[in-house]
Amino acid sequence: MIEAQALSKRYGAKVAVDAVSFTVQPGKVTGFLGPNGAGKSTTMRMIVGLDNPSGGRVTVNGRPYAQHRAPLREVGALLDAKAVHTKRSAYNHLRAMAATHGIPNSRVREVIELTGLGPVAKKRVGGFSLGMGQRLGIAAALLGDPHTVILDEPVNGLDPEGVQWVRHLAKGLASEGRTVFLSSHLMSEMALTADHLIVIGRGRIIADAPIQSIIDGQGKARVRVRADRPQDLLGGLAGEGVSSQVLEPELVEITGVEPRRIAEVALRERVLVYELTPLQVSLEDAYMQLTQTEVEYHSHALPAAGEAPALVEGR
Amino acid sequence: MATSTPPAPARQSHKQAEPGPGVNFGRVLKSEWIKVTTVPSTVILIVSTVVVMVGLAALAAWAISITQQDLGSSGAPQGGQGGPPADFDPASQAWEIPSSGLIFGQLLIASLAVVLIASEWATGMIRSTMVAVPKRAPALLAKNAIIAIIAFVVGAVSAFLSYLVAQPILAGEDLDFAITTEGVLPSILNSGSYLAFIAIISMGIGTLLRNTAGGVVTAVALFFVVPVIIVNLLSGLADWIPDAARFLPTNAGNQLIAISTESDALTQFQGGLVMGAWALVLLVASLLVTRTRDV
C-alpha cells in the first residue's frame, strides 16, 4: 500500500507535483496515467526517497521508504532502465544490489530466468537494447520479492512479446495480493492492464477511480446516424443539449443523447433512419477529455463528478 | 501489508524472504566490494597502479646506483658540473625507494576514487545504489572504506615489492639495506596510509562534484598543481604562504612517508594527522551533501 498526503515537489518556481494525495491499494494493478511532464516520475521518485518532497509525505506499507529495514523487500522499483553501470554485467549488477540485503545468488538467478535475461546475463549492460534494459530494471525490482512493485513506464522499448509479458506480470503480482503501481502515458496499455486509474496532469490528480468508471463517467453517449433527412432529425433534437457533426450528406454523429431518444425523435419527425450505431467511448477519449479540462481543476471538481462519485475522491 | 490481505497466495520465495533481515553495514560493504571488482577497467587500473609504482621504484634504484657509480669513478662529488648536489647521500635516498612510486601511484588512485563515485552519477547507477540503501550514508561510507582499503593495500604492497625489487639493483653498489633499517618499515606501511588518505580526499571531491572529468582535474590540481605553483611562483610573495603550504595534503603526506624529518618540519605523525583531517573534512562534507541531495 502506498499513501501520499499533500505530496509536493517544487523545482525553483516550477511546481512539478502539487499537493497530491492518493492511495494505491494492494491486490490490484493501479495505473498512473498522465502526459509527459505531468509529474508521474517525480512522484514515483519521491515514493522511494530519491527525491525529497518539498511538502507533504508519502509512505509505503505504513512507513517512509527510507525507514524500512529491508527496503528492497518492501518495495521493488523500476524507475529508470538506465540506472546501471554500463560496464558491469547484468548478473553482477543484480548481485551487487542483492548483497545489500543478504539476498542469495540463487534469487538473482531466479529473477534473471523470470525476466528472460539468461542469454545476456553475463554481458555488459552497456550493450543492452532498451528492451533488455527494461527487463533488467524489472529483474532488479523483483529481487527482494517485494510486497509493493513500482514500475515507471515498464513497456517502454519492449517488443510486443515483452509488452504482453509485463502485462501478465503486473496482473500476476496483483493477484498474489501485492500492490502494483504502474505508470504510463499510453492509455491503451492502461485499459488492458490496470484495474484502477490515477490520472495526473500538471502535477495534480485529475481522477482517481476504477478504470471502468473513468470510461463511463467521462464519455458522453455518441451515436452514428444515417438518415435521409438528417437536418430535420437534428432540428427535432434541438434544445436537448446535443452536439452534432455532419460527416456526409446522410451521415451525422450525434453526441449527448441516447440512441433510443434519437429513434423517438426520428419517428416523430417521420425521418427514415437506416443506421443507428452507439459508439464506444475509448479510454483514450476519456483521457483526452480529462486532460483537456485540467486547467479548470484549479477551481472546479470534475464536470462528471456526479456520475462517477469515486472520481477525485483522493483530493 | 500485502501479507495481511486475505487472498494472497504468497509464492514460496515470498516466505523465504521473510527471515532474511535487512540492510546492514557489512552487507553494504560486500555490495560495494562486488561493484569494484566487477568493472574490468577498475581492476585493470588497480593492477597497473602496483606495476607502475614498483617499476618507478626500480628505476629510482637504478638511477641511484648509476649516480653512485659515477661518483665512485669521478671521485669528485663536490660541485662537479652536472653532478649531484653537495648534499647527495645515496644511502638515505635509497631508503626512500619503497615510497618513490607514490608520486605516480597517487594520481592513479585519485582517478580511481573519483571514477568510482562519479561514474555512478554518470551512468545512473547511483539511483540503484540509493534505492537499495535509502539511508545513503552507509553506502557512501562503505564505498569510502572499500577504496581506502584498496588504496592502503596497493600502497603498502607496492612499497614492499619496491623494496624487494630494489635490493638486487642496489646491491651492485653496496647500497642495499635491511627492512629493519630505522624508518623503512613505517615508511612502507605509511605509503599505504598515504594512498588511503588520497583515495578518501579524491572520493570526497568526486562526490561533491558528481563529475568524473571535473573531479579528476580538481584532485590533480589539489595534489600536484597547487603545491608546484606555490613553491615556484607564490612562495616569495609572503612568508605565510610556504608556511601554509606545508598543510596541503601531498606536502603533509610527504612528511608522513619520510624516513626522517627535519626539526622544524611536521613529523610523520603530524603529517598523517593533517592528511587525515583533509580526508575527514571531505568525507563529512560529502556525507552531508549526499543526505539531502535529489538523486
Main pleated sheet of chain A: 6 strands, mixed
Please mark out the parts of chain A with pLDDT under 50 across 5 or more consecutive residues, or reply none.
295-315
> Helicity of chain A, in percent?
25-40%
What is the string of helix and strand elements of chain B?
Answer: HHHHHHHHHHHH
Q: Which two chains share the most extensive interface?
A: A-B, 52 and 47 residues
Report the strand count of chain A.
Answer: 13
CATH topology of the largest domain in chain A: Rossmann fold
Structural classification of chain A? alpha/beta
Characterize the overall form of chain A. elongated
Helix content of chain B: over 70%
Mean pLDDT of chain B: 85
How far is the first residue's CA from the last residue's CA of chain A? 18 Å
Output the number of helix runs of chain B.
12
Structure description:
The complex is a heterodimer of chains A (315) and B (295). By secondary structure, chain A is α/β, with parallel strands linked by helices. Chain A folds into two domains: 2-215, P-loop containing nucleotide triphosphate hydrolases (Rossmann fold), CATH 3.40.50.300; 220-279, Alpha-Beta Plaits. In chain A, 33% of the residues lie in helices and 27% in strands. Chain A has eleven helices and 13 strands. Chain A has helices spanning 40-47, 71-74, 90-99, 105-114, 130-142, 160-175, 187-193, 211-218, 230-237, 259-269, 283-292; strands spanning 2-11, 14-24, 29-33, 55-60, 75-78, 148-152, 179-184, 196-201, 204-210, 222-227, 243-248, 251-255, 273-279. In chain A, the strands form three sheets. Chain A has a six-stranded mixed beta sheet with strand order 5-6-7-3-8-9, sandwiched between helices. In chain A, strands 11-12-10-13 form a four-stranded antiparallel beta sheet. In chain A, 49% of the residues are buried. By secondary structure, chain B is an all-alpha fold. Chain B has one domain. Chain B is 72% helix and 0% strand. Chain B contains twelve helices and no strands. Chain B has helices spanning 12-17, 25-37, 40-74, 90-95, 102-123, 125-132, 137-171, 184-209, 212-234, 240-245, 249-256, 268-292. The interface between A and B is large, with 52 and 47 residues.
